[in-house]
Amino acid sequence: MREPDSFGEPALKALFAGDFHIGAAVNPRTMKTQEQLLRHHFNSITAENEMKFESLHPLEEVYRFGAADELVSFARKHKLAMRGHTLVWHNQTSDWLFQDGHGASVSKEVLLDRLKSHINTVVGRYKNDIYAWDVVNEAVADEGEALLRRSKWLDIAGDGFIAKAFEFAHEADPGALLFYNDYNESNPLKRDKIYTLLKSLLDQGVPVHGVGLQAHWNLYDPSLDEIRTAIEKYASLGLTLQLTELDMSLFRFDDRRTDLKEPPAELLELQAERYAAVFKLLREYKDVISAVTFWGAADDYTWLDHFPVHGRKNWPFLFDEQHRPKAAFDRLLQE
Predict the structure, then answer these.
(1) Looking at the annotation, which residues are catalytic?
(2) Which parts of 42-123 are beta strand (E)?
(3) What's the rounded Cα separation, in Å, for the pair 216 and 327?
(4) Which pLDDT tens digit goes with each residue over 54-91?
(5) H or E element: which one contains 112?
(6) What is the pLDDT of residues 97-121, one digit of tens each?
(7) Residue 124: closest CA among 64, 75, 171, 67
(8) First to last CA, the chain
(9) Nearest CA among 225, 295, 298, 251 for reference residue 2
(10) What is the DSSP track for 274-291?
C-alpha cells in the first residue's frame, strides 16, 4: 500500500470542495488498511455494516457498540463528517425484534415500542457525532404495482412503520438530517414509487429531510438521462439529495465472467468516461446534492467482489488495489 507521503495527486475532497462532501463506507478493517487514503481523499464516512440492527442489537437486552464506537472515534479524531446507516431495514435485522418468547409474531404495538427504544438508544448515543441517518432503507418494491416490498415490518406494523421510524429518529436527535435510502433509484418504475412514498410522508408532516440515491451503477446503466430525471423529480419535493453508496461496476449485474485477474484496459477507459460524465452531471445539481459517498474507497475491498456472481472480482472505484489513482480519477482532474 502507499506510504503516507506518497500522495502526489490533489485530494478528491478538494476537487469537490465547492460542491459536496465526498465520503466512503468503512469498516474496522478498512479503517486501518485504508487509513491514509481515507484521510487524504475523503471528508465523510459511513459505517458499512457496524450500525445495522443485528450488529448493534443482536439480543433484546444486549447492545454491542464496540465496532461502531471505533468508527465514530476515527471520524472524530480526523474531523470527518459521519452518516448513520441504517435504522430500519428488512435485512440484517435481529429475529427477536419481530417475535415473542414463543416464536410467534409480536403485535404492532410491541414492534413499534421496540423500534422506538432501539432508535432512542442508538441515535441518542451518537447525537453529537452523526449528522445524518438513513432512517428507512429499501422499503419500496422493485417491481409490480405494490408500493412497498413485503417484509416483517409491513406484515406486522403496516405501512405506518416508515413514518413512525422518522418520528422516533427526529425525537431522538432533532438536529440530524433524516433520509430515506434506496437502490435502483433512477429506474423509472422504482423512481416514481420512491417519489410517491416521499410525497406521502411529506404530506403527512413526517420529518423526512432527504433521499439517499444508493447509486450502485455500472458502465452501462442507468443512463445519464435517467439519473438526471431522478434527481430533478426528487429535488422537486424540496428534499436534500445524497448519493449514499456509489460504485461503478465494470460489469452488468448478470455478467457471468469469472476469469479476469485484472481489469481490462478498455473497461477501465469506459469507467473513466462514465465517472467523468456522472460527476459532471452531479455538479450541475450541487445546490440540491450535499454529499457523494462511495460504498468503499479502493479496489482492494468492495462488496461487489463475488456479488452477485461468485468468483467474479470487481474494480469499481477511483483507486486501485494499491490505493493508486486510476484513469477515472485522472479524468476527474481534467473536468
Answers:
(1) 138, 245
(2) 44-47, 81-88
(3) 20
(4) 999 999 999 999 999 999 999 999 999 999 999 999 99
(5) helix 108-125
(6) 999 988 899 999 999 999 999 999 9
(7) 171
(8) 27
(9) 298
(10) HHHHHHHHHHHTTTTEEE
